[in-house]
Design goal:
- InterPro entries: MbnP-like_dom (IPR046863).
- The protein has 4 helices and 16 strands.
- The chain has 2 domains: about 30 residues; about 250 residues, no CATH class.
C-alpha cells in the first residue's frame, strides 16, 4: 500500500512538472525576431530608362542640358555601409567585411547596368519594426581598401573597379560616346573615385581625394519588417543630375580622384526613393 502511495505521488509530481513546463513554454514562445528587405535600384537618364549600347555605337539616345547627345556603353556604382532607421528608434546596420575570400565579403554591392542580378540588394537580419529612412555610402571607403588580395566584387581581376592602392576604387563609372567628344570614337569616360584625402607635400596640386558620398533618403511611407512582411523600397538614380551640366567636348576623360572631385557633390542628389512596396 505504501509503495502504491509513493508511486502515485511521483506520478502526480511528474505531471505537475510537465504542466508547469508547458505553461512556461506557451507564455514565452520562441519567435523569429528579424526579417528581410529588398532594396531595388533603377537607373534613368532624365525620364528615360537607362539602356547600355555596344562599344562603338553611334546611337545617341540621350541629351544633356546643353543638347549634347551621348550614349552609354558601361555604367555602375558601388553601394556600401547601408543603414536603416525607423520612427520609434529602430536601427539596422548592414554587416561589413572585406576579405580575400569572395564568400566572406559582406556589405559591399556593385550595381551594374545591364546585369539585372545586381539591381536588388537583399538585406537580412533586420530587427522587426517600422522603418522610414535608408542611408548608404556611394563608393568604397577606407575599410574596403587592403594591400594584397581582395575577393568578390572588390577583386579587380573579377571585374572590380580599382585604380591602384593609393587612388582606391572607382565609386561611380560612366562610359559611352558623344558626338561632342573629339576623342577616338567620340569616347566619354568619367570615373569618379578615391578613398582618402592626401595633402600634397610640396607646391604641386593635391592628387588624392576622398570622393565617397553619404546618401540619406526618406522612404515615401513608413514600412514594416516582420515574419510576414518584407518591404521593398525602389530607389531611382538619375544620371543627368550628375552630368547634365557637363561639357562633353572637354570633360570626357576623367580618370583620377582630383579630376572627379567636382562631380562627387552631385552624386547624392541623383538618388531618390520613388516608391515602396510593403
Amino acid at each position: 500500500m505504501q509503495f502504491i502511495r509513493q508511486t502515485l505521488t511521483i506520478l502526480a509530481f511528474a505531471m505537475l512538472s510537465i504542466a508547469t513546463f508547458s505553461c512556461q513554454e506557451n507564455e514565452n514562445p520562441t519567435l523569429e525576431d528579424s526579417g528581410e528587405m529588398i532594396v531595388k535600384f533603377d537607373n534613368y537618364v532624365g525620364n528615360q530608362t537607362m539602356v547600355i549600347d555596344e562599344v562603338g555605337s553611334t546611337n545617341y539616345r540621350y541629351s544633356n542640358n546643353s543638347g549634347q547627345k551621348f550614349n552609354l556603353t558601361r555604367f555602375g556604382y558601388y553601394i556600401s555601409h547601408i543603414k536603416l532607421e525607423g520612427p520609434n528608434g529602430e536601427v539596422f546596420i548592414d554587416e561589413m567585411n572585406a576579405a580575400a575570400d569572395a564568400n566572406q565579403i559582406k556589405g559591399y554591392y556593385q550595381v551594374v547596368q545591364g546585369n539585372s542580378e545586381t539591381y536588388n540588394i537583399h538585406l537580412k537580419g533586420i530587427p522587426h519594426g517600422q522603418y522610414n529612412k535608408i542611408t548608404f555610402n556611394l563608393g568604397v571607403k577606407e575599410d574596403g581598401i587592403q594591400e594584397g588580395a581582395v575577393g568578390g566584387i572588390l577583386d579587380r581581376a573579377a571585374g572590380g573597379w580599382f585604380w591602384n592602392w593609393n587612388s582606391g576604387f572607382i565609386n561611380y563609372i560612366i562610359e559611352g560616346h558623344s558626338d561632342a567628344s573629339l576623342r577616338d570614337e567620340n569616347r566619354v569616360q568619367i570615373h569618379i573615385g578615391g578613398w582618402k584625402n592626401i595633402p600634397s607635400g610640396d607646391e604641386t596640386p593635391q592628387r588624392f581625394f576622398d570622393n565617397n558620398v553619404a546618401v540619406s533618403l526618406p522612404f515615401d511611407a513608413t514600412v514594416t519588417v516582420s515574419n510576414t512582411l518584407r518591404p521593398s523600397p525602389h530607389i531611382m538614380m538619375d544620371l543627368l543630375k550628375v552630368i547634365g551640366d557637363t561639357d562633353l567636348s572637354t570633360e570626357n576623360n576623367i580618370h583620377s580622384p582630383a579630376a572627379g572631385k567636382a562631380f562627387a557633390p552631385k552624386l547624392a542628389d541623383a538618388f531618390i526613393v520613388d516608391h515602396t512596396h510593403q
